[in-house]
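Hi L.,

As promised, histidine kinase:
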Amino acid sequence: MRVWPRSLFGRLLGIATLTTIAALAFAAVTIGNVLERFVTRGLDQQLDAQVNVLARAVRPDGTLDQARAISLPAFEEQGSGWGWRVDGLAGHWASGAAIVTTLEPLPPRPPHGRNDGRARELRPHPGEGRDARGERVHFRQLALPTKSGPVLLTAAGPRRVAVAPLREAMVPLLLSLALLGGALAVATVLQLRFGLRPLRRLRNELAEVRAGRLRHIPIEQPAEIAPLATELNALIDQNEAGLAHARRHVSNLAHGLKTPLAALSVKLAEVGRDPDGSLGEMVTQIDQRVCHHLGRARAAAPGSNRRTRTPLAPAVADLTSALQRIHAEWPISVVMEIADIAVAVDSQDLDEMVGNLLDNASRYARSAIRITAHAVIGTVELAIDDDGPGLSEAAMGEALVPGRRLDERGGGHGFGLSIAQELAELNGGSLVLSRSPQGGLRATMTLPVAV
């Protein structure tokens, strides 16, 4: 079971929530203790006043002068829970509520002539107990030394005198802390959303780079993210350098392979070298396979070509013009309806993909080819229709298999459509074959749009 969420926002929010709750709980306990001591101090002052009156009423022999042992106003009210007691060897006296307490042992009397601890002994000490009705009382006790022995003076008051004001004060206190907690929660969420906004912006900028709308991530970033942006830009440059090196290597390899193949074709064309033409056919197939795999290697190179921007209409127009010259013996009309859009594909890859599709359409069209292209939610759909015989559903799947020829007529080798499909997929697109409204075959290629 995962305790912490995956997102930074969730983790920081969780930590802030826990710390805020702990801080508010600590504040509530601390403030409650302070309020309790403040309220209890007022109760202690009333009890200490009664203890002092009783202390002045105790005679030197340990007896109580009842004429001087008056009760303060709070102690005179019947049933109020206030009361006092005087306990000594000479007797016991009480007034008000009956106090049931566990009397603390009296401190030892200081030796004769030593008076350094008297001030401490004559200070009342607090305590807790219950009266005869079982209600909690708070009392103050004073051990008063006399000639006949120590006398214990006790004055008690109901605990509710301190608890009731404390409860009344805690209600608005807890409400205030709850409102403070809510305000802190809102402030924390706003702080996290504002603080993590640069990360979201960095993610969007990186997506713009991948889509080809930006070449580098802007370096105007917060101090904590600026090194990351710098490293990402360095990685982008490194991938571009690797792609350029791969393209040079592919070009050199293509030249190194095609030159011997061309020389071999020339030799085989001599009289008697290839009587049935089978060797020449194999050389041509090797040449097509080399072009096929080199095209895949170029498109799949690190960094890909998604940061390039190639206008679609001029590229298709140039290919159409070239094919019309190649197939000049076939009177085929070409209709183009292409919006002013560009694709995030390298121009060489685009020429190879569209060129293969147009060449295939030109071979089988009877009289017309229609080329349309429009943008659809971040992509470009390029459709090429012909009015040829078309293909069945089963044959459409076979047509995309590399090296599979459905028609043995002509000079093709069955790689055109598969090359176009693989290049489209490597560039983040797709190729789908379907029935054309003109009666022939429709090849629909989807490519990423470039801004």
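The chain is about 50% helix and 20% strand.

Thanks again for sending the construct details.

K.
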